[in-house]
Amino acid sequence: QVQLVESGGGLVQPGGSLRLSCAASGILFSRYTMGWYRQAPGKQRELVAVSTSGGSTNYAGSVEGRFTISRDNAKNTVSLQMNSLKPDDTAVYYCNAHILLPRRDYWGQGTQVTVSS
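Above: the chain sequence. Below: its structure as tokens.
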């Protein structure tokens, strides 16, 4: 059974930092592209950052330079370090595991991030 369990969300003031973590089980973690997505109220889910099995990373333009995704294949974890947070970063953040062959997508339950003074 595949499980993705996020942690680390919460309430933070603008300009602050948070670190999200996602622990994966039931998959061959090193072969998966791991990503973070977010969904704000009334908006569609959007990509925040991804880390491929080959070690490449990619970021949404709105978080480039502020967020950093990292993975530990030995521990089956992926993290998202979020700095200089803005109110627009407020959303539920979801961990995703994706593989092309065979095509599979797995999601965590989400963790709330609220940026507010």
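The chain has a mean pLDDT of 97.
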